[in-house]
Request: fold
Amino acid sequence: MSVCDTRRLALRNQLSELKRLTSWIEDRVDPARFPDLSLAVQVCLEEAVANVIMYASPDGDQLEIWVDLGRCEGVLVARVEDNGREFDPTQAAPFRVAKSLQDAQVGNIGIHLMRSFADGVDYERRNGRNQLTLRFVEPRPA
Reply:
């Protein structure tokens, strides 16, 4: 990740970790200064990590999950990386209302949320790891 100041958080593959993730984001994206940006980053990263926990390890295998959050020249770059099975959330089908739970596509709502809030969303599989990168442009001071 080519950013100027990056911090990393290691997470266990448990949904209870989302609370810790939220606090960590708030420490790095000042909600008092950038309330909309803080909320956007929180929603996107929580959705991404929840999808990794639920779908990248369907057999309950232990996952290594890392979240990087960096800032450089007015852009926040967030990356969720894991060593689970290949899972590309950007390949979700166009949004439609599912007729049943079985009909709902894995990660479908999550990627639509990410595309709504983030200024850029990319996925790649590198060295046996899933890497989802999200970019957010910080608002310029008035």
Notes: The CA atoms of residues 36 and 139 lie 9 Å apart. The longest helix spans residues 35-55. The chain has a mean pLDDT of 83. The chain has one domain: 5-137.
